[in-house]
Automatic annotation (TrEMBL):
PROSITE patterns membership: GNAT
Keywords: Ribonucleoprotein, Ribosomal protein, Transferase
Name of the protein: Ribosomal protein S18 acetylase RimI-like enzyme
A GO molecular-function descriptor: N-acetyltransferase activity
GO cellular component term of the entry, any: ribosome
InterPro entries the UniProt entry points to: Acyl_CoA_acyltransferase (IPR016181), GNAT_dom (IPR000182), NAT_camello-type (IPR050769)
Length: 172
C-alpha cells in the first residue's frame, strides 16, 4: 500500500467519490439503502451536499497515494431539539483495500471529530443485520444495538433484509 491518509472530502474529490460510491452500490446492494441504478444517474453537483452543508458535518475520505479508496459521511440533525444527534452514512472501503484497517481508521477519525464538536451527545447508524464485518467494526468502536427494523430493504432478487439500529453516546 502506498501512503494512506484520511482527510475531509473537498470539491475536487467529488468525481472519484461518485465513482467509488457507484461501484460499491453495484457490488454490495445488500449493504446500502440507495440503489446503484438510480444513484449512477445522479449528477456530480448533487454530491456537493456531502461536503459540509446544512445537514452534512463532513465526509472523510481515505486516500492511498492520491487514489480515493474509502469514505464515511457524518450528518447532523438541523432542527434545534435534535441537534445533539449525528448520523453516520455511506461507510465504504473499496474491495481492493478491504481488511487493512481503513474502515476502522475512518471510524476512529470520525468519532474523534464528533467528540470535538460542541453540543453533540450521540451518533447513530443503521447496518444490514447480516453484515458481520461492519457490525463487528461498529461494536468494537463502542456502538450498541438499540433496535432492529425488520424487512428494512428489499433487493431485486427477492431478499428481504433487516437493519440493526446502532447508537454510540459521545457524552453523558
Ligand atoms: C465494512 C467496511 C467499511 C469495513 O472496512 P475495512 O477497511 O475492510 O475494515 P477494517 O480492515 O478496518 O476492519 C475492521 C474490522 O472489521 C472486521 N473485518 C474486516 N475484514 C473482515 C473480514 N473479511 N471478515 C470478517 N471480519 C472482518 C475485523 O473485525 C476488523 O477488526 P480488526 O481491525 O480488529 O481486525 C468495508 O468492508 C466495506 O466497505 N464493505 C462494503 C460496504 C459496507 O458494508 N459498508 C457498511 C455499510 S453500514
Amino acid at each position: 500500500m502506498a501512503e494512506l491518509s484520511i482527510r475531509p472530502m473537498l470539491e475536487p474529490d467529488l468525481l472519484a467519490y461518485k465513482a467509488l460510491r457507484d461501484s460499491m452500490l453495484a457490488a454490495h446492494p445488500e449493504a446500502f439503502t440507495s440503489d446503484a441504478e438510480t444513484e449512477s444517474q445522479r449528477d456530480l453537483a448533487s454530491y456537493r451536499s456531502r461536503l459540509t452543508s446544512n445537514t452534512t458535518l463532513f465526509t472523510l475520505v481515505a486516500l492511498d497515494g492520491g487514489r480515493l479508496i474509502g469514505a464515511l459521511t457524518c450528518e447532523r440533525e438541523p432542527r434545534r431539539k435534535v441537534q445533539h444527534i449525528a448520523h453516520l452514512v455511506g461507510m465504504m472501503v473499496g474491495d481492493s483495500h478491504r481488511g487493512r484497517g481503513i474502515g476502522r481508521a475512518l471510524l476512529a477519525d470520525t468519532l474523534e471529530r464528533l467528540h470535538a464538536t460542541p453540543g453533540l451527545a450521540q451518533v447513530t447508524l443503521s447496518v444490514t443485520a447480516t453484515n458481520q464485518t461492519a457490525v463487528g467494526l461498529y461494536e468494537s468502536q463502542g456502538f450498541e444495538r438499540y433496535g432492529r427494523l425488520p424487512d428494512a430493504i428489499r433487493l431485486p432478487d427477492g431478499r428481504r433484509l433487516d437493519k440493526l439500529l446502532m447508537l454510540r453516546r459521545l457524552q453523558d
